């Protein structure tokens, strides 16, 4: 049986095809410069067909990791990163593209947590994914919490600073507003006094430049606060920090660990902080796991 996983992001989309033989094929593309639903869906369709090949290999099921709030019919209710997607019936679009294929959608952070738990053979885990936003999820006793039937685990909207920056959701102080990739780059630009690209931040942080260290340290502190708060509630075996932005900054995980140690409460053990075993591909692997599992109701998101 052939299954397809799709990880939809704010800037790019990754696809992973598992053929009946067990072989995997992957593809990645960036959204087109024309910011319209029509252009995005056309690009998604073209790259999906290209991955399946000239014969358009039959796919039994597709699992989709989404950074958007979906209603029970698979319609996009809100997506701050691409607001013009509101109202798109993603499940129907993919079903039309691949007739006869089961299409399941879930939150990208939840699916990343599930994939990391599977990769680590760990039944209790908290996952924080740092990218365009902050995704995340909780796995307890091998199951997602609160479970896809009740909505997604909104780790990115744990409030860590009531007087903090305004988040895309409209609140202030969400960990996403402080520690996401764009938030960190904005802070770095303010401290530097000039625009900062990701590679510049990475290289400056590695070189120990004050502005880069300060920008990333604030993000690490926010991530640590969220990790410790969640650990107080669910006592996971491990906390995993992943996502493309975090994975691309050597030493960032160590900074998170340092702040977690500072937040330790007397008489309690601080959670162990671990890098994502799947790197920036956690959500993609989770989407494929979803495709290979039983049908699942779609979930919401930040």
Structure description:
- This protein is of the alpha/beta class and 302 residues long.
- The protein contains 10 helices and 12 strands.
- The strands form 3 sheets. Strands 3-2-1-4-7 form a 5-stranded mixed sheet. Strands 10-9-8-11-12 form a 5-stranded mixed sheet, with helices on both faces.
- The longest helix has 25 residues, at 210-234.
- The radius of gyration is 19 Å and the shape is globular.
- Mean pLDDT is 89; it is low at 296-302.
Looking at this protein, list some descriptive labels:
5-stranded mixed beta sheet; single chain; globular; 37% helix; disordered C terminus; alpha/beta; 302 residues
Question: Topology of this structure?
Answer:
Blueprint (H helix, E strand, L loop, with lengths): L2 E6 L3 E7 L5 E7 L6 H16 L8 E6 L2 E2 L5 E3 L11 H8 L4 E6 H13 L4 E6 L3 E7 L2 E3 L29 H5 L1 H12 L5 H9 L3 H25 L3 E5 L1 H4 L4 H11 L10 E3 L6 H10 L11
Parallel strand pairs: 1-4, 4-7, 8-11, 11-12
Antiparallel strand pairs: 1-2, 2-3, 5-6, 8-9, 9-10
Helix pairs in contact: 3-10, 5-7, 6-7, 7-9
